[in-house]
Amino acid sequence: MSQAPSVAEVPVASAGANTPMASQPRLTRAQRKAIAWQGKSCENCEVPLQGPFCHRCGQPERTPIRDLLALSNDALDYLFDVDSRVWRTLLSLFFAPGRLTEAYLAGKRMSFIRPLRIYLVMSALLFVVVNWTSDLNMRVTGDGDVPIDGSAEDVVLPQLPAPPKPPDAGTGAMDPDAARPAEDVAAAQAAAAQALAQAAEQTKPKAAAEENSGATVKEKKPINLTFADDQPWHRQDNPLLLDWLPPAANEWMNDYIAVIKANLELVRDDPRRLGHSFLQVLPQSLFVLLPIFALLLKLVLVTKRRLYMEHLMVAVHSHTFIYMGILVAIGLSKLAEWWPAGWFNPWWFLMGISIAWIPLNLFLTQKRVYRQRWWGAPLAFFVVGTLYLILVSFTVVAALVMSLVNL
Predict the structure, then answer these.
(1) Given a cut of 80, is residue 103 above it in pLDDT?
(2) Which of 40, 75, 176, 191 counts the highest number of beta carbons within 10 A?
(3) Of 106, 98, 100, which is closest to residue 371 (Cα–Cα)?
């Protein structure tokens, strides 16, 4: 990030009349902006300014009530300044394990993008890419199977005779094949029509059987939810009742079970609906996991005597890096699919390295931030990783249930 020059570094032109104009240094635009506050007072509390911000009320010297050219210049400065911070943040996060978190906890915060902002951007980008790249062309048959890119059996038809070739302009002779009697052509066409009719008759019973089987499945095999009593759940006849819950909570729970059961019927007809709904719910669920993961770090690494907010910064940066690693792996896999067949494909190798770099980066980040020794860091990383995977499993299951409810 470009820093404004300090007051001591900026040459201030003397107002004396004895100083010739040619000897006065010419200030750049950045230098003029850096000393624009000199000789002014705060417009809010009217105290003399000692910098670009008022030391009493905090109001900036630069007001937004200016001409469009000045506002455009400020927008360009802010754009390029943020761009430099973005690249510095991403490169440090991906290639220097723990460096970004360590610098942020040490107070160097203005040189990087805020952790929560970069996390939200990476999370949104990841799930947009996953939703865009995982749209399969699926269909559901009557027996509940989900074939992908299925095709019907080919029907072999008799080959029609080639049309007679026109006579040669020079000789006027006909092609020998053109002398075939018209009865042969008519017989071949009749055979082709008969083959088409037989193929249509063979496909009709199969299609009718599939429709009947699908109707039978929907009528005879409805989706049933079974709980502890091994009996199908029913809203009135066999509801789910928990003794330790109040009646209102049991009513609320059975209402949602009815919604899930009805939505499961829709999912059986179109599985893609569940996938899209799941990808919409999962980002919010993983965001809720952040403070829980920070609490897990606090409990496992209690001997490090770190504040909870420090653990939260580690959690935010770690999840942001995980999303970045997944995005890089997806991009490399797409490049590998476009690579010509039969050649050595380096993109699969790079994708494997990017996937292996995710746990290694997380381990090095934990070791650097918490100042762990080589013999204790693997044990702590194994405990934290195992508990984290359990948390992620419960989070994914909860997200799946919520996606069924919100389908």
Answers:
(1) yes
(2) 191
(3) 98
